[in-house]
């Protein structure tokens, strides 16, 4: 393609916009990206920069940056090119944008998300590492009170470990939910739970509603996390002991008892509603220590202080 030496009478804003979209939609060679330099720093260029970052067209992105396009320009949602690159795992584009001065801690106005939140949620470990190396804040909260670590804790062990290596708080809890709560509730890989506990996450930290990670894991059947939590010192309280039993015919009544307690909204509510039938569940339980605990709970509830 011959580059024009005089202004093109057809280079209207509409033509430029179409051309920018073509560059963004098709992976460009270094030679083709020379065309980018013909475009000046305007709204079309800014849109093209965002598209190139999102699609991972590093050659086109570099040419637009060289032509003077601001690396931190935001789209209508307040997302910068770095948000788009990090959230889509475009490592080369993240590196280019950071080198050009893009802010790794810039939050969008709609949700308060930083590029780290996007990389963590998407499981893009290398993008996350680049952002952290350039000063990304691993404990920055979005508008929901969630940190990048909390966002990553649902699925990505590698991202969790990288964030912890860069000093993320394993117990960061600004919305009633910590990373360990998210990991145990969502059935995250054991490596996620193990990494959080190894970094010092509190296995007994309650959520805003009082539920601990162990209680949530038991009640939702996320049994792979239970041994890790208990070895880390998680405390089993009340009827949650019933949920440690394997499901099966021998313990069917114990599980029915536990399910009934949960459905009633807790032990006290269940006893009030079912004082006459609670023992039919406990009697058939195969764990003698568990029966003693259940009996103790019943006595504590039914017998007033000083009574007999």
TrEMBL record:
Signal peptide: none annotated. This is Uncharacterized protein. It comes from Pelagomonas calceolata. One of its GO terms (biological process) is protein K6-linked ubiquitination. One of its GO terms (molecular function) is ubiquitin-protein transferase activity. ANK repeats lie at residues 77-109, 111-143, 175-208, 209-241. Keywords: ANK repeat, Repeat. It holds the Pfam family Ank_3. The keyword Repeat applies. The keyword Thylakoid does not apply.
């Amino acid at each position: 393609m011959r580059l024009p030496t005089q202004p093109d009478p057809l280079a209207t804003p509409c033509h430029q916009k179409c051309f920018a979209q073509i560059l963004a939609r098709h992976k460009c060679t270094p030679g083709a990206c020379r065309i980018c330099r013909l475009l000046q720093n305007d709204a079309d260029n800014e849109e093209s920069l965002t598209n190139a970052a999102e699609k991972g067209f590093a050659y086109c992105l570099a040419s637009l940056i060289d032509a003077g396009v601001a690396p931190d320009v935001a789209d209508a949602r307040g997302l910068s090119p770095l948000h788009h690159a990090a959230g889509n795992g475009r490592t080369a584009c993240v590196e280019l944008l950071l080198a050009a001065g893009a802010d790794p801690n810039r939050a969008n106005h709609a949700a308060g998300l930083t590029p780290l939140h996007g990389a963590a949620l998407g499981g893009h470990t290398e993008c996350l590492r680049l952002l952290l190396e350039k000063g990304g804040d691993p404990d920055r909260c979005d508008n929901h009170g969630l940190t990048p670590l909390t966002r990553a804790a649902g699925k990505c062990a590698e991202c969790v470990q990288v964030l912890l290596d860069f000093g993320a708080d394993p117990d960061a809890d600004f919305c009633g939910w910590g990373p360990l709560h998210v990991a145990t509730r969502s059935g995250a890989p054991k490596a996620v739970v193990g990494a959080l506990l190894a970094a010092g996450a509190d296995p007994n930290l309650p959520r805003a509603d009082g539920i601990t990670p162990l209680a949530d894991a038991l009640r939702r059947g996320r049994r792979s996390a239970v041994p890790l939590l208990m070895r880390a010192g998680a405390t089993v309280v009340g009827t949650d002991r019933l949920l440690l039993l394997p499901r099966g015919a021998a313990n069917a009544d114990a599980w029915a008892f536990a399910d009934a307690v949960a459905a009633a909204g807790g032990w006290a509510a269940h006893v009030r509603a079912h004082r006459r039938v609670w023992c039919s569940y406990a009697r058939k339980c195969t764990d003698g220590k568990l029966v003693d605990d259940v009996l103790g709970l019943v006595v504590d509830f039914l017998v007033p202080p000083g009574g007999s």
